[in-house]
């Protein structure tokens, strides 16, 4: 009889130890999930701040170009009306970039749901595409006029063509970097959305 009681006690102790192990595993899984969520949220905020910093740097470049472009074009012999149009172009680009930066800032990762943040990222991506389209549509006639106007002066033409090449390369690089950061933010939000389900 004592042997049976000892075996039952051992069996009960084994069952109790098993339940405690399962509870600890469940607790560790929850802690791990919480840690991963905090880590993902930190990564999102880092990506978002990098995107905001990039937009700020490009805005600063845009404002510098606004101040520099008019006098520089005037010294190259461009008509005054064209210098004014070029400065207005840079102003429009700056306003468009400011709108994109505001859109990035509006995505508040600590108060928005994941779905709302994803919609904000999609809106920002659409604004970036529109910015690029606006820039191409407005810059093309300006660049064509500059090339046409400076065709007779070989040194000026080469300078303008070099400036166009550098500007296009820089614009493509910055656009791709911004799209890459947005894609990384969207991927992280998608991961969190799928993790929540």
Structure report:
This protein is mainly alpha-helical and 197 residues long. The protein has helices spanning 2-75, 80-106, 114-149, 154-196. Helix 1 packs antiparallel against helix 2 (80-106) and helix 2 (80-106) packs antiparallel against helix 3. It is rod-shaped, with a radius of gyration of 29 Å. The mean pLDDT is 82.
Helix content: over 70%
Multimer state: single chain
| Radius of gyration, CA atoms, in whole angstroms | 29 Å
Tell the overall outline: rod-shaped
Specify the biggest β-sheet: none
Stretches where pLDDT is under 50 for at least 5 consecutive residues are: none
Give the number of helices: 4
Produce a short descriptive summary.
The chain has four helices and no strands.
Name a few traits of the molecule.
197 residues
SSE topology sketch:
Blueprint: H1 2-75, H2 80-106, H3 114-149, H4 154-196
Helix pairs in contact: 1-2, 1-4, 2-3, 3-4
